[in-house]
Amino acid sequence: MQKRCWNFLTKSRAELLFNKKEYKVAIISDIHANLTALEAVMDYIDRLGVDEIICLGDVVGKGAFPVETIDLCRNRCSETLLGNHEDFFLTDPDVDHYRWVKDIISEDQYAWLSERPVRKDLYISGRKIRLCHAGPENVHQRVYPKQEKSLKFDLFQPLEPGDRKPDVYGYGDVHYAYIEYFESAFTLFNCGSVGNSMELPQASFAILSGTLTEPSEEAWAIDDHEKASPFGIQFLRVPYNINKEIEATLASTMPERGRDIYLEEIRTGTWGKRWSRHS
Ligand SMILES: [Fe+2]
């Protein structure tokens, strides 16, 4: 992996905000302790030269390398959000797999997981971008791509008086990458999953690009060319050595319950039979 002094932003904030340098942020999610997939994504991100990486949660759960994936996210991501698997792990740890995770991670890693926020707002090219694992206030609010449009549009609602509605809502959780538009103005996207990707057995993530802008209370209008500049959402798929991850998982101390179903999922990109009450 490329050596770099990684203080989360590769350019200075002033350079990005006032000099309007092109800014790129990688959005990764749902690593599920699949280390080979995460390393492949980080290597590719280094080649692309992004300014920042944000993780939308589910760093642990399912896979065999929670210690390593926590460390990598902690060292490389400017923010890592809480996922539903972290929430299950922290609030209902009486599951074989979670007991094992708790046994092998450090107290410091446990404390870090327990401090993860539920959402992160940022502003790019005049747009307010809201990033969450699932719902804006609930990591268990599951929203599938084929769900009815009104349920998906609910994700954009302001959370309190004065909260500007996001123009773009990005999430993970369901492991399907997709994009959808609402009312000729709002954009919903899912970055897919790094470690337990559906549809294609390759690590999935997204890159947002544009210019960093200051937070504003004013709503952005799609036809206001002075306030909004070009903005991109790019979906990427990274092939990784799945057999290596499978062999390393089989050689690990991870509990056998659910292991083979998880391995079949990463091999085929299709859901296996639910293996616990937390899948
Ligand atoms: Fe997940």
Tag the structure with descriptive keywords.
279 residues; alpha/beta; Purple Acid Phosphatase, chain A, domain 2; 5-stranded mixed β-sheet; 9 helices; 10 strands; globular; disordered N terminus; disordered C terminus; binds fe (ii) ion
Describe the 3D structure:
This protein is an alpha/beta fold and 279 residues long. The chain has a single domain (18-268), classed as Purple Acid Phosphatase, chain A, domain 2 (4-Layer Sandwich), CATH 3.60.21. The chain is built from nine helices and ten strands. The strands form two sheets. Strands 3-2-1-9-10 form a five-stranded mixed β-sheet. A five-stranded mixed β-sheet has the order 4-5-6-8-7. Residues 1-5 and 275-279 have low confidence and may be disordered. The structure holds fe (ii) ion (FE2).
